[in-house]
Amino acid sequence: MRHPQEDNCTKSIFVPFLEYQTLSVDTKNLRLITRLQAAMVWIDPELTWNTSDYPVDEVILPVKNIWTPEIHVTNGIVATMQHSSRDLLVYSNGTVKHTVIINAEVNCEVNLFNYPFAADECPVAIQAWSTDGCGTKLAFRHLKMVDGAHGDWQTDYVNFQKKRDDRNYIMVSLRIKPANPFITLLLPSMLIILADMVSFALPLTGGERNSFKVTLVLSFTMFLNILNDQLPGDSSCSPIIRTHFCICLIILVVSMLVSLVLTRVAQDGGLIFCCCSKRTGTKNTRRREEEQSEEVKADISVVQLDASGESTQLLRKVVKFLEALDAKDEENEKSQWIANLLDKIFFWIYFILGTVYFCTMTTVMVKYRCKVDHFDFWYDQNY
């Protein structure tokens, strides 16, 4: 069927009613899947007749035998237009009424920086064929939104807007429902960090704290691997929740390493370095040599005349052994005191910085707005 011809090369199509529905939002590929149902009215001069010759004011004709305008979604990746019925209504004055259904997958770079508190507007550009001022011109009146809630996304409102006379679009306001993403993504990371803070109540010695912290690090790593497919895709405004997860993992690893180092300090007062171990071994060797030399001197100076000499020597060894135990206990207590002091200092630093970080990150997620150009698909063609 050919395009109706009039005095000028422009054909006006009146759209008295347009129904919009958001089917889903693909946050991984940044796609908006929509359904449009448009009622169209236009005049085709070739379909007029005289009611005096044919006493019928309206007739029903097959769609396949009548020219019908095609509505395109300019920023649609995939768009299909279907006729709602195989027939349409034609009046004697050439007025034609028909309804079409458009299913479109729109390329919409939704601002996901604030995910899971994301909200943005996405245009759905609607136009008919036209070039060099000739073609089909659409005129819209009423727009109605149906079934605004699908999955994790909520459609707040829709309205008609235009960039210029031949560039009409539906501005769709989208908002994510934060309950499900918050429970499955953000809340677990907060609870794991909280558990890591509470683990400072466990003693440094014994290994329970270190084992618990290693378990937390491995659990959080598995958590990120499992949720990798559920995280939104990258765009010009990349979701800050990815950065949040990286920071949480770094915090857990640093906390684990600090706990390991403090455990070493609590045991022998030194860090995990070979040089420290060697120095400690050297000191112990020298101490044994001095004790042996003292024992030799004592054996030479003491004249073993009777059993009382042997008792004196045995008593000296016992005294030296007890003094060595006391010195070792004092050294262990000093190392334990230093480790506990450093542990408390690190805990309060960890607690304060962690609290400030989570408050700041939550504020940024809720308040900050990243700007996205949603109309880069429209440009002037100069040729």
UniProtKB/TrEMBL annotation:
Residues 185-263 form the Neurotransmitter-gated ion-channel transmembrane domain. One of its GO terms (molecular function) is transmembrane signaling receptor activity. One of its GO terms (cellular component) is membrane. This is Neurotransmitter-gated ion-channel ligand-binding domain-containing protein. InterPro entries: Neur_chan_lig-bd, Neur_chan_lig-bd_sf, Neur_channel, Neuro-gated_channel_TM_sf, Neuro_actylchol_rec, Neurotrans-gated_channel_TM. It is found in: Membrane. The chain crosses the membrane at residues 182-204, 240-262, 345-366. PANTHER family: NEUROTRANSMITTER GATED ION CHANNEL. Pfam families: Neur_chan_LBD (PF02931), Neur_chan_memb (PF02932).
